[in-house]
């Protein structure tokens, strides 16, 4: 398991009863987590009073019930080596906050590989698909990528990613923001013969295609990965395939990369679940999984 344990501004306090309690800087939020199927700890020293609780609505979605005043947005930092990152946190109607802390293990991994390539005189170009608020984009830019292309269909997410770039003092980095369907963008890049030295992909379980059609990740993933592999340069450094879909094990994603990237580029593929350790109980909460292809050079510590 890849364990996200390098945050100081963020902490998973405890989980149980289908919910988790997390500290986002000095604000404590309680929200649903389907993995936390054991009973909620009864001790009030463990399950402390949150500032806000996400309440699901029976008609879908939900809202945050505030117990104490909280700002509409605030910041959480991440100690990426060589360049600390800053993220704007905002509790949303979909229970998200604008940051997936477990992804920090992938940020460290990308940053290590990019930094080593830059030290070796290379100028890596990175493609971040389903890029959300830009966690991986920031990490790649901070590590010295010559260009990061950030693609997300949501204009609101692109705006937040730009704000996070600014908050992290990365305004000088060369980042291109593209508000578009990932599949359509990838097909366009193939027609232009563009290549990338690293690709990161974190698709949702269900998505909308270019014509608004609904697709299931299980049905669409292999073909999308195949197309992306055709965008990898001959000197590619990594391909990261992340998933929050419980139906897709890390081993399946590892197999997809074995079947698509390895025949063309060699290298090695590994995979694991992602997890966050709780500080007030003895658990590591699983938070999706990742498969990583790398060109085989052993680099960095992550
Ligand atoms: C699970 S989030 C990614 C989380 C991100 N990796 C992180 O660590 O912060 C999925 C993102 O995919 C975007 N998305 C969903 N369907 C899309 C599509 N067809 N094309 C482009 N982006 C899409 C959503 O707007 C959302 O921002």
Q: How would you explain this protein's 3D organization?
A:
There is one protein chain. With 302 residues, the chain is α/β, with parallel strands linked by helices. It folds into two domains: 2-80, Golgi alpha-mannosidase II (Immunoglobulin-like); 96-294, Rossmann fold, CATH 3.40.50. The protein is built from seven helices and 17 strands. It has helices spanning 104-119, 135-142, 155-167, 182-191, 217-229, 250-260, 262-265; strands at 2-3, 10-16, 19-24, 27-32, 52-56, 62-66, 74-78, 85-89, 125-129, 147-151, 175-178, 198-201, 206-208, 214-216, 238-243, 268-277, 284-294. It has an eight-stranded mixed β-sheet with strand order 1-16-17-15-12-9-10-11, sandwiched between helices. The protein has a five-stranded mixed β-sheet with strand order 2-3-4-5-6, with no helix packed on it. Strands 7-8 form a two-stranded antiparallel sheet. It is globular. The model has no long low-confidence stretch (mean pLDDT 95). The structure holds S-adenosylmethionine (SAM). The site of S-adenosylmethionine (SAM) has 18 residues, from β13.
Layout: helices, strands, pairs:
Elements: E1 2-3, E2 10-16, E3 19-24, E4 27-32, E5 52-56, E6 62-66, E7 74-78, E8 85-89, H1 104-119, E9 125-129, H2 135-142, E10 147-151, H3 155-167, E11 175-178, H4 182-191, E12 198-201, E13 206-208, E14 214-216, H5 217-229, E15 238-243, H6 250-260, H7 262-265, E16 268-277, E17 284-294
Parallel strand pairs: 1-16, 4-5, 9-10, 9-12, 10-11, 12-15
Antiparallel strand pairs: 2-3, 3-4, 5-6, 7-8, 13-14, 15-17, 16-17
The structure holds S-adenosylmethionine.
């Amino acid at each position: 398991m890849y364990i996200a344990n390098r945050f100081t501004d963020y902490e998973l306090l405890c989980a149980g009863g289908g919910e988790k309690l997390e500290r986002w800087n000095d604000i404590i939020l309680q929200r649903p987590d389907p993995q936390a199927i054991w009973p909620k700890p009864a001790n009030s020293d463990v399950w402390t009073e949150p500032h806000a609780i996400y309440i699901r609505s029976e008609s879908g979605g939900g809202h945050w019930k505030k117990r104490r005043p909280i700002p509409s947005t605030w910041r959480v930092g991440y100690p990426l080596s060589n360049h600390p990152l800053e993220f704007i946190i905002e509790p949303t109607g979909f229970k998200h906050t604008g940051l997936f802390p477990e992804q920090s293990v992938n940020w460290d991994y990308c940053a290590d590989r990019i930094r080593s390539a830059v030290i070796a005189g290379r100028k890596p170009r990175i493609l971040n698909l389903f890029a959300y608020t830009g966690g991986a984009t920031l990490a790649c830019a901070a590590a010295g990528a010559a260009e990061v292309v950030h693609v997300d269909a949501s204009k609101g997410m692109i705006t937040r990613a730009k704000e996070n770039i600014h908050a992290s003092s990365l305004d000088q980095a060369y980042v291109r923001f593209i508000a578009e369907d990932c599949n359509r963008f990838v097909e366009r890049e193939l027609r232009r013969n563009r290549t990338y030295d690293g690709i990161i992909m974190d698709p949702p379980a269900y998505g909308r295609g270019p014509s608004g059609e609904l697709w299931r990740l299980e049905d669409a993933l292999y073909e999308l990965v195949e197309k992306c592999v055709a965008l990898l340069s001959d000197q590619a450094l990594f391909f990261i395939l992340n998933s929050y879909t419980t139906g897709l094990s890390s081993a399946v994603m590892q197999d997809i990369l074995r079947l698509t990237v390895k025949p063309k580029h060699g290298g090695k593929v590994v995979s694991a679940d992602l997890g966050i350790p709780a500080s007030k109980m003895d658990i590591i909460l699983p938070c999706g999984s990742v498969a990583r292809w790398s060109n085989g050079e052993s680099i960095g510590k992550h």
